[in-house]
Please model this.
Amino acid sequence: MEGRVALSDVDDTFTVTAVTPHAEAYERDIERVLITEAEIKQKLRDLGDRITEDYAGKDVLLIGVLKGAFVVLADLARHIRLPLETDFMAVASYGAATKTSGVVRILKDLDHDLEGRDVLVVEDIVDSGLTLNYLLKNLRGRRPASLEVCALLKKTGIQRVHLDIRYVGFEIPPDFVVGYGLDFAEKFRNLPYIATLKPEAYANA
Ligand code: IMP
Ligand code: MG
Model:
């Protein structure tokens, strides 16, 4: 086809440039790597295997909570060996005063109707659990056949509501982390591992 670029022509560009320049700029801010790229890869493979088994013969709909979950969802989906559909939702907490109530505002709603669907919500991290708690109540009201959660990370012992999370990748200490979709001031989402930041990194922002 006219103007079409053969894959072999762009191959080098992809492998050489990708994320490296950003990652170098991040390095001075990173305190330590909590979970490596290899560990995440293995975990997502294991979770994908479990989900493939649990949902065999079902019509799975993966829902990613933007923005943080876009990386986890993309990688997890490729380890689920079933035909599936994906959808995304974007939410924001109401102002600081109402944050404790866990009331969130839906910035982008789903394109799919959930009625009768087997829905699996994919989250980057469960911290207080308030966002997810609100979201699950909202989604349950749309009468899916089933509703479960897969979270890459769960901070230990600080959830303020009881949540039944079927698939958890890693339990981590209740520290602030970045990478693999998680941001600080919108940066670090493209780090291929989970890391903590040096105190100066917050001051510099
Ligand atoms: P929760 O409602 O307190 O469970 O947290 C909701 C959202 O806060 C998560 O989905 C993340 O987007 C964000 N969040 C919580 N902990 C962290 C963190 O350690 N790093 C980056 N974002 C976080
Ligand atoms: Mg999130």
